[in-house]
Amino acid sequence: MKGMNEMADSEYTIDMPIMDELGGATIEISPQTNPEGLSVVEGEPPLFIHYYRHNTLAQANDLIRSRQMDLSLMESKLIRLAISQIVKNDDDFRTYSVHVSQLATILNLPKANVYRAMRDVNESLMSKKIYMRDKEVPTKRGQANYKIIHWLSSVEYKDGVLTYRLSDELKPYLIGLNEMFTIYNYDDIISLPTAYSIRLYELLASWVNKIFDKNRQLDFGDVLLEQDEVMFAIEYLREFFDCKDKYTNSTSDFISYVIDSSIAAINQNTMMQVSYRKHRTSRRLTHLIFKFDNAFTEDSSISSHYDELKQKYESAQKAQSYEGEGRDEEYPV
Q1: Is the CB of residue 21 less than 8 Å from the CB of residue 74?
Q2: How would you classify the pairing of strands 129-134 and 67-68?
Q3: What DSSP line would sit under 176-191, residue for residue?
Q4: Strands (E), 35-193
């Protein structure tokens, strides 16, 4: 949970060190140089990826909570690595380049595995879609309308170097954010073993502020939530994970293969500790209620990150510049 509500304030600088995953030796590369004769994407020299343990990612909640076509683990981390390069004063995206050997170090993966993955990543990443829901304009049948956008505007893999650029359609969800967004450290998700676990971590992180809101709604008729709980409809979760056509034999399969495995990974690899309970409507399983198990613990070694979140949330309430402020849709039921 470290850094989840703390805006990145570092700027791009020449010769900024690139830290390896273990915090060991550094590699210094100037973004003003092009040592490998790299090809230029979108008409500008590529900026080499800068990585250190506390790179932060800020994403609009609407983007985090949207339906996204299933990415591989490698693709998920590549996209988030690019997002982590954005700083708060940016007004445009940049074109980024990363050596495969450096990428293997960042992701703590064997170089051979990364090289093999790069063979297919170009076309795969360019084809993956995001479905942004239009909350204001339903169809004539009362169903939600969606705007379809892509993660990348361009990508090229050549001579061991991946060069790629985020789609301009993502700017409203990644640049100039001042409300209804979530921020966390790239290091928080670097050890997560599946794309599903990354997505669930982000989804839950986007609702953390609610558990500190003493005025939030807890009574939903036949459901009474505790202060450290949030609730999601099974139907929404299936769409969120792009699983409407997967695990169709039973809801239990979906919960087992997607939810249970993701929670186990989150609890093992991050500061967030989560459990859930099931809610039935007319005997049919309809919702999962997630509980932040260590949100209000008295153990200082565990609660320090939540204390920081609470302070950020309360300060932002006074400044009226934070993501909660009563405008967030409480639950996608």
Answers
A1: no
A2: antiparallel
A3: S--SSEEEEEHHHHTT
A4: 47-48, 56-60, 67-68, 95-99, 129-134, 145-150, 152-158, 161-166, 181-185
Q: Could you list the pLDDT tens digit for every one of the 333 residues in the chain?
A: 444 543 333 322 222 222 232 233 232 333 333 434 444 444 568 888 988 778 899 999 999 999 999 999 999 999 999 999 998 789 999 999 999 999 988 887 888 888 888 878 888 999 999 999 876 655 556 567 889 999 999 999 999 999 999 999 999 999 999 889 999 999 899 999 999 999 999 999 999 988 888 888 888 878 999 999 999 999 999 999 999 999 988 899 999 999 999 999 999 999 999 999 999 998 899 999 999 998 776 555 555 555 555 554 444 444 433 333 333 444 444
Beta bridge partners of 274: 292
Domains of the chain: 17-190 (1.10.10.10), 203-319 (1.10.10.10)
On whether the CB atoms of residues 272 and 204 are closer than 8 A, the answer is yes
- The residue assigned the tokens 């942004």 is 132
Q: Token match 């790239």: residue?
A: 186
Region of 142 (left: φ > 0; alpha: ψ -120 to 50; beta: rest) is left
For 16, phi then psi, to 5°, come to: -70, 130
Give the separation between CA 273 and CA 257, rounded to whole angstroms.
19
